[in-house]
Amino acid sequence: MTPLRRATHEVPGLRRLTRSPLVHFALLGGLLLAARSPLLTREHTTRAPVVRAPIVIPPERVRALAEAFAERWGRPPNEAQQRALVEQTAQEEMLFREARLLALGLGDGSVQRRLVEKMRVVSDRPGRSEDELVREAIELGLDDDIVIRRLLIEKMRVVLRQEAGDTPIEDSELRALLERRRDDLAQPERITFTQVFLGEDAHGVQLAADARRTLARLRASGVAPERSAESSDPFPLGAQLRAYTRAQLVGRFGTRFAEEVMGLAPGVWSGPLASPYGLHLVRVDAKLPARLPAIDEVRPALTRAVLRERAEQSLARGLARLRQLYAVRVLQAARVPVTESAS
Amino acid sequence: MFEAVLPCTTSEECPQGQECGTVIARRTGSTSTMCVPVGYGSALCTLARDELTRLKAGTAPGLIAVPENINENPTRVDFCDAGPNDDVGLRCVGQAKNVWEQIQHDAEEAYDRTSACTFTSFIAYEYTAMMGVGRCENAPTVPCWDELDTGSTSKDCPAGGAQLCGGTFPGSGGADNMHRNVIFRNDDVLALPISNLEAPVGCGVGATCDRTAPLGSPQQMLEELRARCNDHPPENPRCEALSIPHNPNISGGAMFLMPESLDEARVRSAMEPLVEMMQIKGSSECRYLSSMPGAWGATDEECSFENMNFSRLNGEWIAPEDRNPDNLPPAAYVRNALKSGIAYEKMQGINPFKLGFVGGLDNHNGTPGQSEEIDYARHGAHGDQSFAVSGQILNEKYMLGLETSGGGLTVAWAEENSRDSVFAALKRRETYATSGTRPIVRFFGGPGLRADICGCQSFAKLGYASGVPMGGTLPPSGTAPRFAVSALMDPGWPNHPGTKLDRVQIIKGWVDRSGATHEQVFETEEGSACGVSPIRRGGGTWHKKGEAVDLHTCRPTGLGRASLCTVWQDPSFDPAAHAFYYARVLEQPSCRWNQYYCNARGVDCSAPMGVCGSTDPALNGKGCSSSADCGGGVCETPVSYTAFEYQQCCSGLVPATVQERAWTSPIWYDPTPARGAS
Question: What is the pLDDT at residue B676?
């Protein structure tokens, strides 16, 4: 099965895997490394950009893009979406051309098979060796083909991602990522508190008054935490709730209770705080502030994330660099250029 | 599923193995020509795309599931073969491996391995064996293997099955669901899951049946799983797995056929500690019909809860007049399996069905934990490919229609939120199932349990110290055991208050001296305070079931308790009898999903369905329930609902309310001295 075919056959969850750079690396191997062009290297971009032939997008292509979008999403693209579709088309054309310059199709099994198949249909001598058929196909321009195009575009993206290289990942890089993604990766604030619970079922209409009286008693006598339970109605989660996060408190006691408890000063009896269960008198025993995990706790996840980031940044850099080489012309039906960009 | 991306005009433009075919856009219905895999446009594939992902009763699921899932001797379909000499279906094996590796990768990404333990994922898969026909011994309720091999004898039916297996029954469509969820303890998992293709439940029609495992049994799969994983072979030294029978209520009774051998009983006992009590396709606890109480073993009216009227997966809907134990086999229900299990244990010394309880969604939406009724009314099952965009949502005869529920949840009492700790809790059955809400429930049992435990702050600590928790086993004792249940209501979520609790029941099952099984449901009383005096001051029992919800707003009206606690002692304890006890905690009634749906559509069943549009001024504008009420005119419904929606919403086919509940795993009493300790 060719890589291309696999990708189109798979269930959606798999597509991510087959699109992942690692898989492509394995598939494409050293060939790509050998094919890397000096055009792509950093020092080259300091010279004046070599301007390639402009990318021209004809009106029927623009219309086809809009139609395909409408078919897929049930409505025509808006202006921004239309611009994005055109930009994506231009980018793919650019990647295809660059891939051809790098001869990424050379020696590629899928490309060769495709060319051989086509030549066997069109050639007057289909029985020749595969190498000969491929050579003739290229001479005839049969390699500008929708399948080969798709394949080369993807290979070009892999090449650009791969430019990230295999520089060892330093702890400093992991630390920077951890800092940057602090909101996702931080371990949440936790709170431990002791409660005296007064249930509606047990106290009925006296609930609020009983709670105030009990609170006054707790405050006045400085009751030790382990003795305070004697004033409490039984509560299935116990008298002390340990290391609860805000989210856990919200899930079990509701938003209001959670906000109130998280805001309490430690060491003193507060309340009464209402929950769906009744009233709670609360003494915060400890607050564990939110913290970033140590690198060693999350090293594998951070490493995966760094590699992903490097690859995507490298791809973005490469695309931007190549984009400088191209002007894009989007033609209207009257064949008058309506937009022109050479960013 | 394949997504066409390459436009084409001829097949020449398509990659190898693909052809240029017509693709219909799902949303717009417009067609275009795109490269598609060879065979994409075949009748089978077209049908499959339309039907398979919805798990809807149709032709394509049958055409693919018959060879792969339902056949007694399953094989992969032809397009799996990589070449003329491939009889394994290597293409599909390769794809299966890709999926399995992706599952492992995703599970790892989702798992928080830090000490914060914020989220735990497991690597797991579903074993999807089904039987198109059943074991002879289960005839005549299920057509047996030998119906296909009329008259001859076989391993399954040594006396020849034809005369036993002649009958067909109304639910004969579909297949006996013998699905299992296989869950691994850690990331040391099998290279490929053991599916029903490698370990089938049958041995093939007309094939020489030389397998040692019985037909219609998970024995072969479980034994392979044990050998290749739980026995820690060198390839998988840390492997450990358990298997959870899933959706037994649509197994046609096949899920809990009595073991044919001690080997089968042993492997089931070792590998299957849990059973799925509840999921969107109904409750599996028990079944009850007021017109024939006890027909399925239970005289317990709470057993009419969320009973699906299908006996088999994708089977035919069983009409009210056909609902009897022949068509809806009692063996499909968990309570009966628990009873069969202890009866077997009394004779053979091992319990093949020692099952704790879990709940699941199975809604195929990729939304774990989304069990709220109001969410089900919005999203339904199987994503937008089924009833969110389909009138079938209200069709009681549709497998994923009106009779489905919001789905269940599992709670495991674990020391911490980690794979190891949660898996250990699953294994020792320290779990409870809920019908979708999130109450907290504790359950302990033991003769030494304090009678005043309910009043004590340290309920759990005392429970562990003086009894066994849910899922445990009590050793022989001359004293009747006490059971204590403590429950705290689901608090709800912002703008959606939880429903208060109604009461706690204890369900007991036991085997008498003759070997016959029995069951009884006990209502409980409120427990007393730690020390002596009762907690409550208002007096009265907690049996205050009433209309506790406003059907128009679906807001609770305040009846019930925020928490419940009880201590119950078995009044008819026989120290020599095998028994099990589990607790069922009932909430007050709340809106079932269909009521949310009907409210959202503006259906008011106290008003007529529509108004007449008629040229006759006497009829024009008059309320109507059909066009027949409007003379020659038309009964017009408001734009917010259709006539079908009004009719189904107001038909009473399913209740407008649901009494959500939790079921704790049982505590068993084992009178056998040597083995009793848990």
Answer: 43
Strand residue runs (E) in B138-215: 176-177, 180-184
For chain B, say whether A243 makes contact (Cβ under 8 Å): no
C-alpha to C-alpha distance for B182 and B222, rounded to whole angstroms:
10
Chain A residues with beta carbon closer than 8 angstroms to that of B563: 199, 201, 235-236, 277
Residue A7 predicted with pLDDT over 50: no
Residue A267 φ/ψ, nearest 5 degrees: 85, -10
Please, what's the b/e burial string for B161-194 (b: 16 or more CB within 10 A of its CB; e: otherwise)?
A: bbebbeeebbbbebbbbbbbbbbbbeeebbeebb
Question: Smallest Cα–Cα separation from B637: which of B614, B666, B612, B665?
Answer: B612
Mean pLDDT of B538-557: 69
Q: Which residues of B touch A188 (CB under 8 A)?
A: 116, 118
| Cα–Cα dist B436/B245, whole Å | 19
How far apart are the CA of B500 and the nearest CA of chain A, in angstroms? 9
Q: Give the global pTM.
A: 0.80
CB atoms within 10 A of CB A208: 13
What are the tokens at B481? 């055991």
DSSP letters for A26-57: HHHTHHHHHH--GGGSGGGGGSPPPPPPPEEE
Cα dist from A98 to A342, B59, B411, B676, whole Å: 17, 49, 56, 75
Q: In 3D, which of B375, B438, B393, B373 has the Cα closest to residue B590?
A: B373
**Which candidate from A150, A236, A276 shows the least CB-CB separation from B459?**
A236
End-to-end CA distance of chain A: give it in Å, rounded.
40
Q: Which residue is listed with tokens 């139609």?
A: A67
Closest CA relative to residue A218, chosen from A274, A287, A263, A280: A280
pLDDT at B653 over 60: yes
Shortest Cα distance, chain A CAs vs residue B117, angstroms: 9
Q: Quick check: A13 and B561 CB within 8 A?
A: no
pLDDT digits (tens, 9 = 90+) for B113-172: 888 888 999 999 999 988 766 555 555 555 455 444 444 455 544 444 443 444 444 455
What is the C-alpha to C-alpha distance for residues A230 and A141, in angstroms, rounded to an integer? 89
Q: What are φ and ψ of residue B20, in 5° steps?
A: -85, 120
Per-residue pLDDT tens over the stretch A245-278 = 999 999 999 999 999 999 999 999 998 999 999 9
Residue A202: CA atoms inside 13 Å, Cβ hemisphere, count? 25
Cα gap B290→B294, rounded to integer Å = 9
CA angle B133–B134–B137, rounded 5-degree value: 150
Burial class (CB in 10 A: 0-12, 13-18, 19+), B516: exposed
The whole-angstrom distance between B572's CA and the closest CA on chain A is: 29
Q: Among B676, B469, B426, which Cα is nearest to B576's?
A: B676
ipTM of the complex: 0.80
3 state SS of B491:
coil
The DSSP secondary structure of B551-602, one letter per residue, reads: TTT--B-S-SBSEEEEEEE-TT--TTS-EEEEEEEEEPPEE-HHHHHHHHTT
What type of residue sits at position B8? C
Q: Show the tokens assigned to A85.
A: 């579709």
Of the candidates B668, B580, B139, B573, which has an alpha carbon nearest to the alpha carbon of residue B335? B580
More confident residue, B150 or B566: B566
